[in-house]
Amino acid sequence: MNKDTNSDSSKPKKRRRDEEIEAESSSSDRTLSLEENLTFSDTLVALRIMRAQFPHIDKSLRRERVLRVFKLNTGQDDHAIMFLDDYLNQIECVVKRMEEKKQVNLEVFEWFQTHVLDSKLEPSVGHEELVSGSDCSLLSIVGKVKDEHISLLINAGILTRQLIDPDMYWFAIPNIGSVLKGLSQGRKEILSFLNRRKYKEMMLALLEKKHLRFSPLDMRFHLRDLIGSGHLKTIHTPTGLVVQISKD
């Protein structure tokens, strides 16, 4: 007993915290319905629970390099929040595939992780901040970065060029296309289903059990998305929460 206690107390605080969060999120995901955990008091627990419900494929946390925020093309105000370790794993998978294809100039990915991700916490970055020859270049610190290096990052799905300003890029998540397609289709499917009902509403406990035909994402993920974006609202009734199409 004492040995176990001493061993546990010797663990680094961050590791113990991560283990507690993982245990809580796992327990919550198994035992609580969406109605019971629609909102959260702990940001990290909330994100880990939602990550557990997501298929495998806040500012202080950004500053601590725990999370990154990405602008999505599914809506004007749509953003994705991703754990930095998950994002780096995605980049690593992309690099491995390129190595197998004998792609050249792969050193730009290491430069990108070390000198750009650590410095730029915003969702976007300017072209002049990346290429050599600029006083504010982030990548040129370690070598000559040319347009072909930036093209490689774009082709890998790590950067996307902004339509309104071709000299600006959004940071992007590799291989996210199928997820964004599922997000858009799932939104449309749920809203269409509720709009066909007489009062455009349904008990949350029943709705969260429905199977979506056009999205691989968890129904609970979609409901939080639609409630958070204001497309749906919840109403407390004696029999439980009701989800209703917002009139605005």
Quick summary:
It contains ten helices and eight strands. The protein is of the alpha+beta class and 248 residues long. The N and C termini lie far apart (59 Å).
Give the helix proportion (percent range). Answer: 40-55%
Distance between the termini: 59 Å
Low-confidence runs (pLDDT<50, min 5 residues)? 1-11, 24-31
Radius of gyration: 22 Å
| Alpha-beta content class | alpha+beta
Give the tally of β-strands.
8
Tally of individual helices:
10
Shape: elongated
**Widest sheet: strand order?**
3-5-4
Strand content: 5-15%
> Roughly what is the average pLDDT, rounded to an integer?
79
Taking the sheet with the most strands, its summary is: 3 strands, antiparallel
SSE succession: HHHHEEHHEHEEHEHHEE
Question: Mind explaining what this structure looks like?
Answer:
This protein has 248 residues and is an alpha+beta fold. It contains ten helices and eight strands. The strands form three sheets. Strands 3-5-4 form a three-stranded antiparallel sheet. Strand 7 and strand 8 form a beta hairpin. The model is unreliable at 1-11 and 24-31 (pLDDT under 50).
